[in-house]
Amino acid sequence: QQPVQSPQAVILREGEDAVINCSSSKALYSVHWYRQKHGEAPVFLMILLKGGEQKGHEKISASFNEKKQQSSLYLTASQLSYSGTYFCGTEDQGGSEKLVFGKGTKLTVNP
Amino acid sequence: GAVVSQHPSRVICKSGTSVKIECRSLDFQATTMFWYRQFPKKSLMLMATSNEGSKATYEQGVEKDKFLINHASLTLSTLTVTSAHPEDSSFYICSSSVLRNEQYFGPGTRLTVT
Q1: Which DSSP symbol is given to A43?
Q2: CB within 8 A of B72, min separation 6: which ones?
Q3: Which of A44, A96, A97 faces B1 most closely, judged by CB atoms?
Q4: Among A42, B30, B46, B113, who pairs with A34 as Cys (CB 3.0-4.6 Å)?
Q5: Is B36:B94 a contact under the CB 8 Å cutoff?
Q6: Distance of alpha carbon A8 from alpha carbon A49, whole angstroms
Q7: Nearest Cα residue to A67 out of A50, A55, A54
Q8: In this predicted structure, what is the pLDDT of residue A55?
Q9: Which residues, in sequence order, are CB contacts of B20 under 8 Å at separation 6+?
Q10: Cβ pair B107:A40 closer than 8 A
Q11: Whole-number Å distance between alpha carbons of B55 and B40
C-alpha cells in the first residue's frame, strides 16, 4: 500500500524550515527519502532502519517512528537547491526489498 | 553515492516496434535491480524486481511478455518494451541496490511511441 505524504506542496523563502511527513498503514522495515528535480531521476537522501532513529545530512535530517509507521524529513535553513519533489519510499517487514513510493511533496524555495 | 547509468536517455520509436533499455551499475555489483515507470508529475511505480541469473518478479498488472527483463550480470539489467504502443510512452527508471540498502537510480529513459 502506498504511503501517504503530507503536505502535497510547500512554498518557502530561502532560509525557512519545512517538515515533510510520510505515513504507512503497514509495519515497516525501512524508510528511504529521495529528492527529484524536474526531468531527472530521484537522488538518494537517506535511509532509516530502526524505530526512533534519526539521521542527518547537513541541514537535512529525518526521523523514523517504527511504532507509528511514520517518518518525517526536516529541512532547515532551506536553500534554493532544495527545490524539487521529495518522495518517501517504504519497505515493509516482509523482506522483499521493494520500495513503495508516496505521491511526493513538491517543495519550492524562492529567493 | 554509487553510479548507475541508463541508455538511451531518450528514444522515439514507431508503434509496433521494440525498444531495449540498458541499466548498468558502474562502480558496484548490485544484488538487485528494480525497474520503475513514472508518468508526468506522478510517483514512481515499481514494474519489476530482478536478481542476477534469475527470472524477474513482476508487480501485479505489469505484463511480463510485454516488458521483458534480463539480468545478465551483477552490473547489467535490460528492459525491452515489445510491440510498443503510444500508451507505453513514459519515463522508465532503473535502480540498483546492495543487500537491502539504499537504491541508486539511473538517469532515466524517456520513451515516446508515435
Answers
A1: E
A2: B52, B78
A3: A44
A4: A42
A5: yes
A6: 24
A7: A50
A8: 63
A9: B78, B79, B80
A10: yes
A11: 29
Between residues A49 and A107, the one the model is more confident about: A107
Size (chain A), residues? 111
Q: For residue range A49-75, what is the model confidence (pLDDT) as tens digits?
A: 865 566 666 789 998 988 888 999 999
- Complete DSSP assignment for B2-35: --EEEE-SEEEE-TT--EEEEEEESSS--SEEEE
Separation between Cα atoms, residue B24 and residue B45, nearest integer Å: 20
Contact list in A for residue B97 (CB cut-off 8 A) is 97
Q: SS3 for A80?
A: helix
DSSP string, A48-79: E-STT-EEEETTEEEEEETTTTEEEEEE-S--
Task: For chain B, give the number of residues.
Answer: 114
Q: Which residues of A touch B32 (CB under 8 A)?
A: 97
